[in-house]
Write a structure and sequence with these properties.
By secondary structure, the protein is α+β, with helices and mostly antiparallel strands. It has one domain. The protein is built from 5 helices and 3 strands; from the N terminus they run H-E-H-H-E-E-H-H. Strands 1-2-3 form a 3-stranded mixed beta sheet, with helices on one face. Strand 2 and strand 3 form a beta hairpin. Helix 1 packs across helix 4. The relative contact order is 0.19.
C-alpha cells in the first residue's frame, strides 16, 4: 500500500500535477485494540457515512469531526485543486503539496491529525518501486 501510493505521488509530482498525500490512521470505533486502521476504513469517513459506522455520539464526536474535515478537504480539492481552500472551522493542519525534495503526508487521525515526512522505509520502498513491473508480471 505504501510503495504504490508513494510511486503514484512521485510520478504525478514529476509530471507537474498537484499531489496531496495522506495516511489514514484511525481504526473504526469498535475495532479490536490491536487491529489499527485497516484497509478501506477511510471510506466510511470519506463519504461521511451516517449509518452508525462512525460510532455512537457524543462519545465518538471526534470521528464525526474528522469525517466532516475530510469532506471539506475533498470538496476544496475537487473545486480548487487544493484541499486547503475552504477549511472554515476544520481542525486539519495545512495540507502541504507533495514535494519530491521534501515529501510529506497528512496523517488523518481522529484524535490529532498532523503532517509527517514520507520517508518510512525509504530505501526498501524505493527498491520495490524499481522492480514493480517484474512483481506484477
Amino acid at each position: 500500500m505504501i510503495s504504490g501510493r508513494r510511486k503514484v505521488c512521485e510520478e504525478f509530482t514529476t509530471a507537474g500535477l498537484p499531489v496531496f498525500s495522506y495516511r489514514f490512521d484511525t481504526p473504526l470505533w469498535n475495532a479490536a485494540p490491536t487491529a489499527g486502521a485497516q484497509h478501506f476504513v477511510n471510506v466510511v469517513f470519506s463519504f461521511q457515512n451516517i449509518s452508525g459506522a462512525l460510532g455512537p455520539l457524543p462519545k465518538y464526536q471526534n470521528y464525526t469531526d474528522l469525517s466532516t474535515d475530510i469532506g471539506k478537504a475533498y470538496i476544496s480539492f475537487v473545486n480548487d485543486g487544493d484541499p486547503n481552500t475552504s477549511k472554515g472551522n476544520s481542525t486539519l493542519p495545512y495540507w502541504p503539496r507533495y514535494d519530491l525534495d521534501s515529501p510529506q503526508n497528512m496523517v488523518l487521525n481522529a484524535n490529532y491529525s498532523f503532517i509527517e515526512d514520507d520517508d518510512f522505509r525509504k530505501e526498501g520502498i524505493a527498491f520495490l518501486n524499481t522492480v514493480d513491473r517484474e512483481l506484477l508480471a
